[in-house]
Design a protein that fits this description.
Order of helices and strands: EHEHHEEEHHHEHEHHEH
Number of helices: 10
Bound molecules: 2'-deoxycytidine-5'-monophosphate
Number of strands: 8
Strand order of the largest sheet: 2-6-1-7-8
Distance between the termini: 13 Å
Length: about 220
């Protein structure tokens, strides 16, 4: 079994790399950002103050959050589109900053990892799967990241792209405390190579690390 942690800031290509690597390794892809987003939507619907960490955590602890086929389900409702919208995007960093919320969501993040997985987020390598066989920290220049976000949502106007870059910088600042690469993470700049090359290299590293670790597991 192989466990890989893929971390890095928003717009860096984590989801693309993590999904392709999970498919290549034939293990589940766990998008922890989607789990934080679904919990944030639940707090909005419950009318909870996003600054109230304890109440947010109570909501996070009582809801059921699952991912199937690249979509996110909150208590069995498909909320994939709602969690990518502006309301959740504006609040998720604040809701996810509360330590009790982070503790409450760990069980969702670790579910389904019995046979391995690729876990994507900000703190996968430091908090969710600190024993992962391979830990990766993805980087890219602010221009590359803003350009990718713009392409994802169909924005072409240069002023709008610049405002996306500002938004990313603000979210980086707000996420900064929990955005720390694990000491043993490898750094990969997604602006330097194509997805196929990056995924091929990571798959080879992960497979080698997992087979080197196997005798220790027995
Ligand atoms: O990767 P994303 O943009 O979907 O993440 C949404 C938010 O969730 C982001 O602002 C940071 C937060 N997050 C977090 O705090 N810890 C994680 N492991 C993943 C995401």
């Amino acid at each position: 079994m192989i466990v890989v942690a893929i971390d890095g800031p928003g717009g860096v290509g984590k989801s693309t790399v993590a999904a392709a690597l999970a498919a290549r390794l034939q293990v589940p892809h766990i998008d922890t950002g989607a789990i934080y987003r679904a919990a944030t939507l639940a707090t909005v619907r419950a009318g909870v103050d996003p600054a109230d960490g304890q109440s947010c955590a109570e909501v996070a602890a009582r809801v059921d959050i699952r991912r199937h086929g690249g979509r996110t389900f909150l208590d069995d409702e498909d909320v994939e589109d709602a969690i990518r919208g502006p309301e959740v995007t504006a609040l998720v960093s604040q809701v996810s900053s509360h330590p009790p919320v982070r503790t409450a969501l760990l069980r969702h993040q670790r579910a389904g990892l019995e046979h391995g997985g690729v876990v994507e987020g900000r703190d996968a390598g430091t908090a969710v799967v600190p024993d992962a066989h391979l830990k990766v920290w993805l980087t890219a220049s602010p221009e590359v990241r803003a350009g990718r976000r713009a392409a994802q949502i169909g924005v072409t106007d240069p002023a709008a792209v610049a405002s996306l870059a500002d938004e990313l910088a603000q979210r980086d600042a707000s996420d900064a405390q929990r955005m720390r690469p694990a000491a043993d993470a490898i750094m990969v700049d997604t602006g330097d190579a194509g997805v196929d090359d990056i995924v091929g290299d990571l798959a080879a590293r992960a497979t080698a690390a997992a087979s080197a670790a196997r005798p220790k597991e027995q």
